[in-house]
Amino acid sequence: MFREILVPFFISLFVFTGILFLARILRLIDLAINKNVPIGDILWLFSMIIPRFLEMAVPMSLLIGTLVAFGRLSSDSELVVMRATGLSMRKLAIPVACFSFVAFGATLIIALTLRPWANYQLGVGMFELAKQKTSSALIQGVFNDFGPLTIYSEHVEPKGGRLRNVIIADEREEEPSTFVASNGQIVSDDKQRTLTLRLYKGSIHQGGGLNYNVTDFDINNIRLDFDVLEEGETTKTGKKTSEMYLGELNEVISNLRSKGSAIDDEDSTSLARAIVEWHRRLAVPSSCLFIAFVAMALGIQPSRGGDSWGAALNVAVGILVIVGYYLLLALLTAASRKSVENAWVLMWVPNLVVAAASLAAFKLMESERWLSITQAMGHLFATIRQKIQSLTEKQRA
Q1: DSSP 3-state assignment of 117?
Q2: Rounded-to-integer distance, Cα 307 and Cα 309, Å
Q3: Helix ranges, 110-201 (H)
Q4: 219: how many CB neighbours lie within 10 A of its CB?
Q5: Nearest to 298 by CA among 387, 236, 370, 233
Q6: Residue 219: helix, strand or coil by DSSP?
Q7: Could you give the CA distance from residue 67 to residue 143 in angstroms, rounded to a whole number?
Q8: Taking the CB of residue 210, how many other CB atoms lie within 10 A of it?
Q9: What angle do CA 257, 260, 264 make, to 5 degrees?
Q10: Is 205 in a helix, a strand, or coil?
Q11: Long-range interactions of 315-319: CB distance < 8 A, separation 24+
Q12: Which of 259, 260, 267, 195 has the alpha carbon at shortest distance from 224?
């Protein structure tokens, strides 16, 4: 059983990881071509994304691997022989359960250690890259585009990022503003991972005609936004919740909860995010313990009469099951971030649904009633196919 599951498991793992990685390929091309980033840096940064995909791909691959394995055993009548020799579904489920525990352990290691480390390395790497490119991209005597900001500087120091005679057109707000300053400097905060253009002794110009306003300042900070591969903001500790280990998340949760009724909206949101991330780290790996038994139920459905569409239907249903699980998880994750009280409960709902489905399916498999359902489905689809073929033949005639 281990050999039967292992091969389709690794094939599925490779395919699913590749499919998830394709969503980032366009960004890879943009960094390589438009930003002139060295290929070595690109490969390093994108290797840090793989653990995030593996955490999702392992449960998906477990389902498909188990489904394909039992589908092959069913189509070759090997399951019939096994059960005729006295092997019950409970005994057949033992190697599946062992494989599920291995997948659970691997996913747990990824979720608890590998993914937060890789996310932190990715965030720091992207920030260092942004710092280098921001200083080198500013050309003196030229209007430089930085998204909604257009920056002009008469002189730019290659080292230190100091600017002289600066003009900035800011179109981030509905009413555009123009900043004029005698000096400026690019300031980076490595802990919070922010880039700031600090202007000295200047003025802000807004509006036009009778509504033209000028505001003088001694120091003014303009935050420079840079594209990152990870969503979310850094916390006061300098890490995002997705970059923290469980111990760090526990510390954040304890500190925020200690404020009691004095907690503000921003801290309440941070608390909900930390709680959601903590439970998600355990919920996704735990799905491996149940999802393989759903795959068993789908896999033992035989392809009646040797029809190839039966196996394809089983795989399609399996993919729908795992997609439905992740969609439900995503919806409840978004809902959990708005409510501190129900955050941990909602994060375990998808697992409870899968656990209930696996228990019900296993009972049906033991009682032999599952095969009668399969046979009914086979007859239904065979009838539909015959009607379509008869209609096609009539149209040709």
Answers
A1: helix
A2: 6
A3: 115-137
A4: 10
A5: 370
A6: strand
A7: 59
A8: 5
A9: 90
A10: strand
A11: 315/64, 315/67, 315/68, 315/71, 318/63, 318/64, 318/67, 318/294, 319/64
A12: 195
Give the dihedral sign, CA 294/296/297/302. Answer: positive
Give the bridge partners for 220, in sequence order. Answer: 199
Counting as low any pLDDT under 70, the low residues of the chain are 27-28, 30-36, 133, 135-137, 158-160, 225-238, 301-311, 313, 339-340, 366, 368-381, 397
Alpha-carbon distances of 65 from 8, 99, 337, rounded to whole Å: 5, 10, 33
Task: List Cβ neighbours of 353 (8 Å cut-off, separation of 6 or more).
Answer: 325, 328
**Is residue 232 classed exposed, middle or buried when 0-12, 13-18 and 19+ CB atoms within 10 A define those classes?**
middle
**Separation between Cα atoms, residue 120 and residue 49, nearest integer Å:** 11
> What are the Cα distances from residue 199, in Å, to 75, 146, 151, 363?
73, 16, 12, 70
Cα dist from 365 to 80, 116, 298, 378, whole Å? 13, 39, 10, 17
End-to-end CA distance of the chain: 50
**Tokens matching residue 340:** 């501190």
Q: Distance (Å, rounded) from C-alpha 241 to C-alpha 238?
A: 10
Nearest Cα neighbor of 291 from 108, 72, 60 is: 60
Q: Which residues contact 178 (CB under 8 A, 6 or more apart)?
A: 167, 168, 169, 170, 204, 205, 206
Q: Which of 54, 46, 66 is nearest to 1 (CA)?
A: 66
Distance between CA atoms of residues 362 and 298, nearest Å: 11
Asked if 203 and 219 count as a contact pair (C-beta separation under 8 A), the reply is: no
- Burial readout 330-359 (b: 16 or more C-beta within 10 A, e: otherwise): eebbeebbeebeebeebbbbbbeebbebbe
pTM listed for this prediction: 0.76
Per-residue model confidence (pLDDT) at position 160: 64
